[in-house]
Amino acid sequence: MNVLEIRNLHKSYKNKIILNNLDLSCKTEDVIGIFGRNGSGKSTLLKIIFGTVKAESAQIKINSKILSQKEIISSKSIGYLPQVTFLPKELKVRDIIPFFYPNGDDQNKIFYAPKVSSFEKIKVGHLSIGQLRYLELLLIGNLDHSFLLLDEPFSMIEPLYKEVIKNLLIELKNTKGLIITDHYFDDVLEITTNNFIIKDAEKIEINSKKDLVKFQYLSSN
Ligand SMILES: Nc1ncnc2c1ncn2[C@@H]1O[C@H](COP(=O)(O)OP(=O)(O)OP(=O)(O)O)[C@@H](O)[C@H]1O
After folding, report:
1. Where does the ABC transporter domain start and stop, copy by copy (predicted)?
2. Pick the CATH number of 29-41+76-214 from 3.40.50.300, 3.40.30.10, 3.30.160.270, 3.40.718.10
3. pTM, two decimal places
């Protein structure tokens, strides 16, 4: 089992505190949901953990070893699905897979994953939003990371692919710890083991949809 521990993560932009001395832990088989209104700091939190945004302070440990932000990236322990798409539009799906997986057996895992045969001959630019997000998640999620950070895996996705993505995340959870942020709260709550909301730069544990109302993320109607 692998354990990721974040302590005293503090981040502000100009004079505004975005994340105030926040602590967070994630271990293999955890699926942690992070909620919060637009601009509350969810993406910033994931980028700091991944190592691409600098915090004023943050102690990040993997399996009890403290890692600097540079070391996090070079350790290849953490995978990250960014909010914006990153695959080249002009390439066909089947030509992209070998870039991520040079080894034939690893490639087969992607080629034989559910639904991939239905779009492997298509150019990335012609995929539906659901197909594209699923492909991105397959490519990033099957790499050898201990933890996976997912920024909006469900946003704008058609119901069919939401289910395919959920099944993939449930499978990935067997070997990784996952941290997910998305406004599609019903989908997130279906698969998470622990949930938090970021409100006024603080992290608050929540246990149900009712708590999302209590902390003014959802209206009571
Ligand atoms: N590079 C930056 N420079 C200045 N302010 C920034 C920068 N990046 C983010 N912010 C601000 O930090 C706050 C948190 O942004 P972040 O993108 O983390 O929010 P979020 O919770 O992911 O929002 P959303 O739900 O809209 O994706 C916002 O007020 C945003 O404007």
Report:
1. 4-218
2. 3.40.50.300
3. 0.95
